[in-house]
Every structure is written in structure tokens, then in C-alpha cells.
Amino acid sequence: MSVDELVGQVERARKDYEALVAKGLKLDLTRGKPSPKQLDAANGVLELSGEPVAADGTDLRNYGGLQGLPEVRAIFAEDLQVPVEQLLAAGNSSLELMHDAVVFALLGKVPGAEQRWADVEGLAFLCPVPGYDRHFGICERYGIKMIAVPMTPEGPDMDVVERLVAEDAAIKGIWCVPKYSNPDGTVYSDETVRRLAAMETATPDFRIFWDNAYAVHHLTDSPAKIADVLALCAENGHPDRAFVFGSSSKITFAGAGVAFFGSSPANIEWWLSHTVKRSIGPDKINQLRHVQFLRDADGLRAHMRTLAELIRPKFDAVDKILTAELGGTGLASWTAPAGGYFISLEVPEGCAREVVAKAKAAGIAITPAGATHPYGDDPTDQVIRIAPTYPELPEVEAAITGLATCVRLVAGEKLLADQAR
Amino acid sequence: MSVDELVGQVERARKDYEALVAKGLKLDLTRGKPSPKQLDAANGVLELSGEPVAADGTDLRNYGGLQGLPEVRAIFAEDLQVPVEQLLAAGNSSLELMHDAVVFALLGKVPGAEQRWADVEGLAFLCPVPGYDRHFGICERYGIKMIAVPMTPEGPDMDVVERLVAEDAAIKGIWCVPKYSNPDGTVYSDETVRRLAAMETATPDFRIFWDNAYAVHHLTDSPAKIADVLALCAENGHPDRAFVFGSSSKITFAGAGVAFFGSSPANIEWWLSHTVKRSIGPDKINQLRHVQFLRDADGLRAHMRTLAELIRPKFDAVDKILTAELGGTGLASWTAPAGGYFISLEVPEGCAREVVAKAKAAGIAITPAGATHPYGDDPTDQVIRIAPTYPELPEVEAAITGLATCVRLVAGEKLLADQAR
């Protein structure tokens, strides 16, 4: 773009932004929440037919069953790539399980550990960025140092990861969202998973926190497949390296789903040694409702296709509008995920905060810039997370059109200022 | 009893025990579980009528609502003696909340604390005995030293408690089941509660873990009342001293109830600072089911009267049979609680383990002797916990008759051996 063209572009953006503010919008794209229509599609999970009894005759109303209902574990085992006997079904949130895994490791030695993590000087986790703010929140709450690692189109930059874990025994974990990552929508390549499983670490008790949150959340007819992390860890002599997490929060109900924890037999035993002191068993009746609603792995996949029909138009709209408004301008790039809940929008250096602020001033709430990075600090201030699932399609369209206006304005002014220097 | 009478008594007990074993019973009085009939009485909680929406219009299927549904908190606030704005409704287990309170205090300073409990040298809890094994299990899992304090008919021996907490700043907590205590059925006197609230402690961050598990679990028409611990702590200048716990596990479903945490505003804020990193909110739909089933505090009390009709005959049977079999023998004493889930049976020194073992050999499973004490160690080996709620009445009768036979045998032989020395 010539300077004149740029000036003209910024002028138009200013007018468009004034018009946007005048509209007095009130739109919210901050969180990855299922829409009411998605929830409606899962209303069957409210129903319980017959007696609240397990296949083996257990009365599910009473105490017990720490490992969760075998029937619900069987439905999710294949897609979570965990043998059913190593997969536990728990409460309504996998975030709880990730938090508790960190806490249990802080206070009780994980298999292979020489000390509890609470006693490790300089305890640190690797955080592929952009990443999920709630992962980072757990680390921050417990004073675990976060080391950012860049994402590539194949997953975390494994050259960086391998170097860091080989050097520093205080690095005990890495956060991974291996399929349709939050927020890029990246699918880890088989080679990335293999290298994570095989790499040499300075500490014997390194753990991969494998948050397979979007295991079945496909938006296309060719579902992404990722390598089997538990199997690869075992094959490479690190059987206890991976903790696998998943949930039905974005399958049935976000507030009343079922969460899963899967790992090696030794890790499961360790996990249960903690949870047996904490829990009298999960809500098995809710698990039975899930069994009756989803029926089996095929039923789960069929339900996910129903949800994809609701979500895909929103993802398509985001891509279409961003292409129309920003394509070829050099002002932004964005991802076009084949699944998951998020789209990542990258703007010129130093612009993300200002874009989000401008959008907010125009009544469009976007996840705070920086949320995708440890400590809320995106060092180049470039990444904006778009969460298009919750609002209805016209609202998504209005919000993204408005967001694109903010990008044109902020990034255009930035370019202009840079050229003036 | 003369030696001859004693010899005769032991002879009869031996014959009765042989006959008991020959019956090949298979009875279980180990845990405080609701019976199927109690659970049936709460089956209404399986039903959800109308839309899964809160009184304020919130869609309960989605994320959010960390504090729990206000409507369910309102039902329990009065009986738990916690202002509704300081009462949180959570998952299906108050044990989880007690565990998490310990963990959060280990890893993040409680209000008033100078350090996290994980960094306290010689960290210890007071454990009134006999007490609840699952409380002790949490301490043991996290290496918290347990100091036994004797129970009196008014609650923990406050002379001992006051002396210990005044001396030792590493004593950070005390486990209390203030109403119908597990296993004695003791109701704390107002004076005990006042002294707990008022006592001077060597540490600024002492906490009372107030497990009000049996707040509404009355067996008579004159429900026990306990003093308001939160109010007394505040009045006495220790507003943050008490953590209050409760649940509907033994009201609705043991596996699918609602648990509660109540405390001072500062403690609630501290609690939420942890749970906001852990949770996306509890299962609010299950909380709504509870609201629809229980309706209000009066509905809760009416339901408890229904349950009392089912439980009281079992407690009466235990007392009647123990009186008939052991009354006046000097071989045992036992409590006759006016509520709760347990009866405590005291046998002569050194006999409890052997009685439980003999009962087990006769097919009657009783909570392991020692479970009522820290580290499973009842130093005088005298306390046996009876949990009569789960089996049907004829089974309770058969089990207690058998247990009494074991007491007559073991305690009789013990007395005989003592006399022979």
C-alpha cells in the first residue's frame, strides 16, 4: 500500500468505526461457551429412564464408584485414546482434574519423582503460546514459573521444548491441547507427539498435561487424528509421562457434563491414592444420563455432527468476513481451524490490546489481549482470540465485522505512524 | 460377677458364637450409608420439571455460577447457621470441600496466615476421639500430624484443647462434628462452642473444621440445637476461625447430593480465589433438582422426618439388643444418639480389635477397630463404631445380636484371663 492508499484506508476505517460505535452494539465473544441451540441439542441428557442402576446392578444413588461408571468410560475411551481400564470418569469439569493433578503432584510425589513438586526449587512448566488462559491460571495460583514456547503449525516448537527439558530438571510439565488447540486450532503432527513422548528430560518425573478438550469437536467431514500419546510414551520408555484430560462440557452441558482422566496404570493408582481421600465417588447418576443419551462411541460422534452443523456456519462467517475486510491488506492473519472452539487472529506488533480496547468501546467484548500468554503478557501484543460459538450467527457476523473495523483502524494507524518515523 | 458366673457366661458365649458362625451370615455395618428405602424417599430429586433455568433467568446448562445456585443455598443456610451470602453450594461431597480447604491452606495462605501450611514445621491438627476416619485420612495423606483429644459428653475436652492451641503455633486446625458426632452422637454444648470460638491460639490462622454433617439428621421430636459457631467466632474477635461444611449426601442421594461450604467473608473470598482457578462452576442443574424436590427449609425438615421414620427403628433396635444382651454385665457401654448415623460401642480395654475380628469371622462386617482414631490406632483398643442405617431392620437385629455375642465372648474371656492373673 502506498502512503496515500494507507491514509485513505485509515480515513475509511475511522468513519466505519464512528458508525460502529453509533450502533451501540452489545456482543460477547469472550469465552468458548456452547450456544443455547447446542445445549438444546443435548437436552436429552436431562432425562433419566428406568432405575438409577448400573449395568452391573450397582445402585448409583449411593456412595462409591471412585473410578466412575464403566459404561460412560467405555463411550469416551476410544476417542480419548485411553484404554477404558485406565480412564476415570469424574465430576463436571476437566479443569478441576488438571488443577488437582497439579495439586496432587505438588503435595504427593508422582510416580518416578524424587521429591514433591512443592519442594522443587524453580518449579516450571512449559506453556506453548498462544495457549489457554485457564492452564496458565493454575500455574500462576501455585507459583509455578511459566516458560513460553512458540507454537508452530505442527504443535509446540519441539526443538525449543527438547532443549529446555534436557537442560532444566525443574521443568516438570508442559500444557498441551493437541487437537484443534486453543486458540489456534492447530492439530499436533504425529512427529510432534512422538518427540514429546520420546524426548530425554533432565527430570525423571516430567509430565505432559494432555488436555484433549476437542477430541471429537470436528467441523469438517475428515476428522483430525492425532497420535496416541499414552502408547507412544510407553513405547519410548516413559510410560508415566502423560496425563490425559477430556470432558463432555462442550458435548452435552458445559455446567453438567462428565470429565475424564486417563493415564498409565501407575499414574492412575497414584491419582486414586489421592482421590480416595477426597471423594466418595463422582455423580454416577449424571454419568448414567450421559450413557443413556449418547449410547456409545458412534452415538457420541453422531451428536458431534449435529453440533458441528450449528458451529460451522459461525466459523465460516468469521473466515469469510475477515477475508472480505482484511484479506490482502497485510493488516492481519488468522487461522481457519477444522475443529475446536477458537480462531486466532494475529495483528501487527503492538496492536492487539488497542484493537480489543477499541472493540470494547464499540460494545464488542473480546477475550483480553494477552490472555493467550502466561501472566497475560503477549510480548509482541499481536494475538487476539475469537470465540464464535456462543452468539447466534447474525451476532457473530456483526461482531467480527466490527472487530475487523477495529483492526483496520488500529493497525492502519500503526502502519501510518511507522511510515512517518 | 463371681468367677463361676463368669466361667458360665463365657461357656454360653462360646456356644452362642459357634451357633452364630454356623448361621453363615453376610451382613455389613461398616459405613454410614443411606438405605435403599431412604434413597427411594428422595427419588423426587431425580426429576426436573420445566426448563433448567434459575430464578434469575440464568441458563443452568452452561458454564458459570461458581458460588452455586442461590435458591439451594437459601434452603440450607438456616440449618447450617451460615448467612446465605456466605454459603457456597458445590459438588456432590463435603469431604471434597474439607480436603480442598486443607489443600488450599497448604498451598495458599489462609487469611491471617504468615505462611502457607505446607511450610509450617510440625504442622498439626487436633483430632477429638473417637472421630471420623475420613478426616484423619486427609491429614495422613498430607503428612499433617494428628493429636488426639478426648471427647466428653459436651464435645472435645476443652481444657485440653485450650492448653494445646495456646502452646503450639503449629497446631492449625481441629476437626469437629458438632452435632450427633461421628461416632458417639455427641452434641457440642453451647459452652464448648463458645470456648472454641473464644480461645486464644498461639497461631493467628487457626481453623475449626466444622463438619456439620448431621445438621438436620434428627431422630427425635426435639431436634438438637448447637450454638452458631460463625457468629461466636466473630463476636470473640476471631471472625475467620471457622470453616463450616455440610451436604445433602444423607438427605437426598449419597452419590449425587449437594455439598456446602460456609465461612466468613474473608475466608469465602480466599476460597473463591482458589476455586475460580479450578472450577467452571458446580453442577447447577442438580442443585435445581434439589430446589424443586426440597422446596424450602421446611420442606427439608419434613423430608428429614420421613427419613427419621426409617432410621429410628434401627437405632432403637441396636439399643434394645445391646441392653438385653450386655446390659448390667459390665462388659460394654454404648451411646444412644438422638440423631446422626452412628452409635459408639465401648468394650473393655484391649478387646475392640478382637471383637471386630470375631464378628468378621462370623460374617458380620464392622468398621475396623481403631478407625475412630488417628492413624487407625485406638490406644486402649476399646471403641467400636456401629453404622446401622444401611441394612434392613432384620439384618441390623441379626448383626447386633451377633456382635453382642462376640463382645460377651471376647470381653468375658478377657475378664477371666485378668482374674486368673
Q: How would you explain this protein's 3D organization?
A:
- 2 copies of one chain form a homodimer.
- Chain A has helices at 3-23, 36-41, 70-80, 94-107, 133-141, 158-167, 190-198, 229-235, 265-278, 284-294, 297-326, 352-361, 393-420; strands at 27-29, 87-89, 124-129, 145-152, 155-156, 171-176, 207-211, 242-247, 259-262, 333-334, 343-346, 364-366, 383-386.
- Chain A folds into 2 domains: 3-30 and 301-420, Alpha-Beta Complex (Aspartate Aminotransferase, domain 1); 51-295, 3-Layer(aba) Sandwich (Aspartate Aminotransferase, domain 2), CATH 3.40.640.
- By secondary structure, the first copy, chain A, is of the alpha/beta class.
- In chain A, strands 2-9-8-7-6-3-4-5 form an 8-stranded mixed beta sheet, sandwiched between helices. Chain A has a 3-stranded antiparallel beta sheet with strand order 10-11-13. A two-stranded parallel ribbon of chain A has the order 1-12.
- At the A-B interface, helix 4, helix 5, helix 9 and helix 10 of A face helix 4, helix 5, helix 9 and helix 10 of B.
